[in-house]
Amino acid sequence: MELSSVVARLDEELRTADYADLDASANGLQVGPEDRDLERVAFAVDGVRETIDRAVEADADLLVVHHGLSWGGFDRVTGRTYDRIAPLIENDLALYVSHLPLDGHQQLGNAAGVADLLGLEDRAPFGELGPEYVGQRGTAADPYAPDGLRDRLATNLETGGQPVRHLDFGPDEIEDVAIVTGSGVDWLDEAVAAGADALVTGEGKGKVYHEAREAGIHVFLAGHYATETFGVRSLQDLVSEWSLETTYLDVPTGL
Fold this sequence. Notes:
Elements: H1 3-14, E1 28-31, E2 40-46, H2 49-57, E3 62-67, H3 79-90, E4 94-97, H4 100-104, H5 110-118, E5 120-129, E6 132-144, H6 146-156, E7 165-167, E8 174-179, H7 188-193, E9 198-201, H8 208-215, E10 218-221, H9 230-240, E11 245-248
Parallel strand pairs: 2-3, 2-11, 3-4, 8-9, 9-10
Antiparallel strand pairs: 1-4, 5-6, 6-8, 7-10
Helix pairs in contact: 2-3, 5-9
GO molecular function: metal ion binding
Family: Belongs to the GTP cyclohydrolase I type 2/NIF3 family.
InterPro entries: DUF34/NIF3, DUF34/NIF3_sf
């Protein structure tokens, strides 16, 4: 299959263009010519030297990641940036990136994957960002005890051996759960306004402790990497249906 066809299919499925003015990431094809054939596609959360080198070792033609190389463009292609771009070009390895579009996708996205894990029902988009969303909200079929929800996350996420942090300020039973993966505590007020019992995200900021305590809501910090493996894995499943060989490169950070 031609690279241009794969890029077009992914852009259409992820509605890449709709996030163009909302995301600092240059989503879509970041590195590579559109005119080439693909046989093998690698998937990873982060476009970094380790995943690029491992994609080269796997003889991949395309690497699909959530966190890419370009965040508002490059001033210079030197240092770390050069060290990441050079092996892509030297090995004719293309790089496709989907940041916020993959967060916000209501079936394939990161928040949707966490919602699947927690068995949430009656789901709706959550995490407003302009006219789009970067998360999801739903109701637990059976209410969780706070420790039970934490244990569910800890047991099933790739946390790199790190614990799931829990700010235990909400009700004794958790039914309504809001999810924004990665760095999502900025949507705490939206979760409170929506009546959520808990916000599940990846990493926190110092202010969230007191904000959650004052609002009476649980916050679960399950790791930036750990909460954002779902989207690229879902894309891997999708691309596998296109008669392409795929591989997933797991490089957990514990953060």
